[in-house]
Each structure stands twice: as structure tokens, then as C-alpha cells.
Write a structure and sequence with these properties.
Layout: H1 3-23, E1 25-28, H2 30-40, H3 42-61, E2 68-73, E3 76-77, E4 82-83, E5 92-100, H4 105-172, H5 177-212, E6 217-220, H6 224-228, H7 236-246, H8 248-269, E7 275-282, E8 291-297, H9 307-355, H10 358-372, H11 378-413
Parallel strand pairs: 1-6
Antiparallel strand pairs: 2-5, 3-4, 5-7, 7-8
Amino acid sequence: MNYKKMKQTILLLLLVYAQAFSWAQTAMTLDEAEKTFLEKNLFLLAAQYNINVKEALIIQSKAYPNPVFSADLNVYDPDNDKFFHVNNTGQKVFQVEQLIVLGGKRKTEINMAKQNKILAEAEFADLLRNLKAQLHNYYFSINSEKIMIDNYQKQLEILDTIISAYKIQVDKGNFPMKDAIRLKSVYIKLNSNKSELAAQYNDNQKQMQLLLQSKQEILPVVNDNDFEKFIDLKSLNDLQNLAATNRPDLKMADESAILAAMNLKLQKRQAIPDIALNANYDQRGGAFNNQINAGISMPLPVFNANRGNVRAAEFDKKAMDLYAQEKKLEVELDVQQAWLNMQRSINEYNKVKELYNEDFEKVNTGMKQNFHLRNISILEFVDFVESFNESLSDFEEIKKQLAQSAAKINYVTATKIY
């Protein structure tokens, strides 16, 4: 194989490898990630089934008790020495009994079943709220980490080239060994930082892939303009009102208190006895042949008036009322804290954005060129590299915190504000 054909083969293999690698990655905007999450997340699908369960239980609660049929047939007639003497001269009894539920118990049970469905819907909304918050946090963490990893990789490649060139000059005695060691030390530090960040990146990728039910690496599509939409902040009072209206966990607390009140009502009504109506046919066992009877039965609330269950339901209602009251304060404090953090994040972002501009990249490029031309010392170059990395890392951290603070505002208000 000549050189030209070998070159073409290598190029083809590189293109195939690049294409295969691209298949293992998926670039997504935040809106696209949310859409995929809503369609594929298994936790959400499972929680939806719980709502269906509660709907089925509403249907069941409306069902009235079935009538009870019983039959009493003769097995042995000692007077006539016959087995199963059940014909016209024998004996048999048939009875039908129907329970009549009194005191409004059935209606209360239906209302409780409906209330349980409302709670299931609130639980679903709360699960959705929590998973969405995780999605936003992982999305912007991955974006920030990828930018820093790519920056480290570029600088490591430059340092690797410089170190190789320095080694040649050190071997020739043109440069001191300490300069080469200093460059190697910077390389090792950068590589260590990159490895640590890559481990975090992989962990966050795993969690993101679980949320989206995807085996592909998620590549966030974020530009600087995306952060500008986070710098507008509603008033604290507006956010408090949104949270009071939309927070599913607050609704769960209120609806649980209502359910506890319904249960107390049911337990009190359980003390009201139900009655059972019956009708029976007795062929020869009664006072008359072919006798047809009707009857009624009911338990007497002498020994069990359901007092214990009533008292337990009273305590449960008091506890749920206190929990609902505590949850309201918790929501208000959640919103207040998120609002303060958002204010701080906006202020930090605006300040750093003024300082960190295109001048940083220009100086970064200029420092590399000047170092190659030996216009600056190795100490100056190394100090700049370290300072540049710290500045970039800090800026990316502030942008990430801004995005996550915005996600927190969405979370505490249960409203898509950002």
C-alpha cells in the first residue's frame, strides 16, 4: 500500500470513528431535555399509574354491598330414612339478605376515595416538580463542567507541546532543568483538576441519562444569552402568592387535613348500626308448610361504639391541621430564601460579566504567543495560566449558580418563571 492510499484509509477510519462517536452523543437545549424527560421518565410513568389506581378505587367505593343468598337443604331424614330429602315432601330453606348502609357512611367513603385521588394528583405534581429541579441542576452543571474540561484539555495539549520542546533544549543544555520541572508541575496540576472535574461530569451525566432514560451522552446547548433571561426577578410578594397557589406539597398538606376530617366523620358514623333486610322460604320447618318470611337484623352498639377509632381520628385530624399550618410557613421561608439567593446570584453575575469579557481570551492568546517568542518568562506564563483557569472556573461557577438559583425559584413556586 502506497503512502497516498494509506493516508486515504486512515482518513476514512477517522471519519467512521468520529461518526460512531457522534452517535453516542445527543445535543439538547433545555426545552428539548424537558420534553424528553416528560415523555420517557419511568418515575413519572409509574406515578401516573397511582392516579389510575385511585380512580379505580372511586368506582369501587360507589359499589353497593352485594345481597347474600343462602340455602339450607336436608341431608338425612331419620323419620323416613332418606338422604337428601328435598322434594315436595322433604325440607329446604332459601334466604336472601341485603345490607342497608345507614348514617351516610357510603357517601363519606365515596368522598374519601375522591379525596385520595386529589392527593395522588398532588403527589404526582410534587414528584414532577422535584425531578424537574434535578434536571435543571444537572443540565447546567454538565454544561459548566464540559466548558472547563475542554479548557483544561486545550491547555494540556499546549503544555505537552511546550514540555516536549523544553526537554530537547534541556538535554542540549540550553534551558535549565528547573523550568522544565515547573512546566511539568503545572501540567500535573491541570491534569489532576481535569480528572477530578471529569469524575463529577460522569456522575452528573449518569443522573441526567437516568432522568431522560437515555444511554447517550447529553451535550447541553447553552450560550451566554441564555443566562440573560435569568437576571429579571419578580417581587418577593408575587413569588409568595404563586407558591401559595401552585405548590403541590402545600396542597398535599391541606388535602391531607381535609381527608383526616372526612375520616373523623366516617368513624363517628361507624357507630350508627347498619341494618340487614332478609326474606326466606321455609318448606316444612316453620309453623306452616311452604312458609315465606321477612326479617330485619341490626347490631346493638352496646359493647363497641367505635370510641377508640373516633378518638384516634380526632388526634389524626389535629396533627394534620398542625402539619398544614407548618407547611405554609415552610413554603414562605423557602420562597424568601430562594429570592435572596437569586438576588445575590444576579448581582454576582452582573459584576463578573463586566470584568470577564473578550479581553481575557485576547490576553490568553497573546501570552501564549509571547511565551513562544520568549518575550515573557516561564514564571510569568505559569502564573497567568493558573490565574486564567481560576478566573474561568469562577465565572463558570457563577453562571451555574445563577441558572440553578433560577431553577430554585421555579421549584419553590412550582411555576415555570425561567
